[in-house]
């Protein structure tokens, strides 16, 4: 059974319960968490990243740095620009949609262009908006650029529903210290970067532009030199802001552990809360079986984030290796194939939540951070004591 089938069956099984139970607050909370998991798994689609910035800020380079491949041409003068989403296929079934809005602050953002963007964003809103700005240009006539940025932010929808704005302070390698090009940087350089970052934040606040964070970075790499700095930090911020539907797609495209860990922790939290709700529902169903099915799904999803499609047997072996639930683990994923069996013995809320969190942490340690099963087991033990 694949993960889509599994979550659909879990939801269906809970939905078939008597309405007296379904009216309970806990039950509704459980279903909303299960629905969120369903959005991640069943409604998954490629991520949509919109990038804006001045010409030469490093928008194309940032794309290449994020996907770790030279796909877009850098240093090209963008003459025409399409104002529509471009899809880039990275591998089978791994795709990223990107829209580039170049030439900010150069008087090129004509009304017509803004309207086209607005139309496109109306059809398919961006998951995150990334403003790339060159570190050496923070003080040079930034107001015209910020005016244009503000217009584009407004294009992305009503204020309450807008994508988060992530600001990338790019090309920090070029900040004075010429002998300090490659990270890790000296303390002096780090202080300078922090100062420029503060300044950019000050400009954004002065203009009333709502942003999530300013992330310093270097996007440059070629066959011989890799000057990249903190691209994982950029990816992690994208991971924090990305909506459920784009999580799996984005994690296949942006292969950074920081990003994957961010998504995995969200999945673990959802499953842990759902597990506590299951334990609180006072019916025979609220039992170890659906709980184990949910935990199996969680492990499988973390495997997917780590680039591994786990078979039912591998999931069982993982649960067994953690020293848990040997008997029920056998049937972990098949169990909801039929009606959930009505067994007794409820699990306590605290145990259900904590164990689920512990298993999640162990799965992240093993499948994302590449730690041994022994280490993963230690992680679980440290969390459920
Ligand atoms: N040193 C350095 N060069 C960069 C960095 N990011 C981009 N570049 C270079 O700056 C130039 C402009 O970058 P590009 O991505 O084409 O800018 P765009 O116009 O915003 O798409 C290209 O030659 C890039 O290779 C960076 O962080 N450091
Ligand atoms: Mg470009």
TrEMBL record:
BP GO terms, sorted: tRNA methylation; tRNA wobble uridine modification
Ranges where the G domain occurs: 49-170
InterPro entries assigned to the protein according to its UniProt record, in alphabetical order: GTP-bd, P-loop_NTPase
Keyword Transmembrane appears in the UniProt entry: yes
Transmembrane segments: 263-282, 288-306, 318-336, 342-368
GO molecular function (one): GTP binding
GO CC list: cytoplasm
Keywords annotated in UniProt: Membrane, Transmembrane, Transmembrane helix
Keyword match Magnesium: no
Name listed for the protein in its UniProt record: GTPase Era
Organism (species): Pandoraea horticolens
């Amino acid at each position: 059974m694949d993960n889509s089938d599994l979550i659909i069956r879990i939801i269906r099984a809970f939905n078939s319960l008597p309405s007296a139970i379904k009216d309970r607050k806990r039950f509704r909370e459980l279903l909303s968490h299960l629905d969120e998991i369903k959005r991640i798994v069943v409604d998954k689609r490629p991520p949509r990243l919109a990038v804006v910035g001045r010409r030469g800020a490093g928008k194309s380079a940032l794309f290449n740095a994020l996907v770790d491949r030279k796909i877009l041409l850098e240093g090209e003068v963008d003459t025409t620009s399409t104002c529509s989403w471009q899809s880039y296929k990275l591998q089978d079934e791994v795709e990223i949609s990107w829209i580039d809005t170049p030439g900010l602050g150069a008087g090129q953002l004509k009304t017509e262009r803004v309207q086209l963007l607005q139309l496109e964003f109306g059809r398919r809103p961006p998951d995150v908006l990334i403003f790339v700005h060159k570190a050496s240009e923070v003080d040079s006539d930034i107001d015209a650029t910020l005016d244009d940025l503000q217009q584009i932010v407004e294009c992305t929808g009503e204020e309450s529903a807008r994508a988060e704005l992530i600001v990338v302070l790019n090309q920090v390698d070029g900040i004075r210290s010429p002998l300090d090009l490659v990270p890790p940087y000296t303390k002096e350089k780090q202080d300078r970067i922090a100062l420029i970052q503060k300044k950019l934040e000050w400009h954004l606040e002065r203009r009333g532009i709502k942003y999530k964070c300013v992330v310093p970075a270097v996007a440059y790499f070629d066959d011989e030199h890799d000057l990249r700095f903190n691209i994982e930090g950029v990816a992690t911020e994208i991971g924090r802001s990305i909506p459920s539907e784009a999580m799996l797609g984005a994690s296949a495209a942006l292969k950074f552990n920081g990003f994957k860990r961010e998504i995995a922790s969200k999945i673990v939290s959802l499953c842990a809360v759902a597990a506590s709700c299951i334990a609180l529902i006072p019916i025979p169903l609220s039992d170890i079986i659906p709980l184990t099915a949910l935990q199996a799904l969680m492990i499988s999803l973390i495997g997917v984030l780590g680039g591994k499609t786990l078979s039912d047997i591998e999931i069982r072996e993982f649960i067994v290796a953690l020293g848990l639930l040997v008997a029920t683990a056998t049937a972990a994923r098949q169990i909801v194939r039929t009606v959930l069996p009505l067994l007794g013995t409820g699990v306590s809320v605290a145990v259900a939540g904590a164990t689920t969190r512990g298993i999640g942490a162990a799965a992240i340690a093993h499948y994302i951070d590449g730690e041994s099963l022994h280490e993963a087991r230690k992680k679980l033990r440290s969390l459920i004591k």
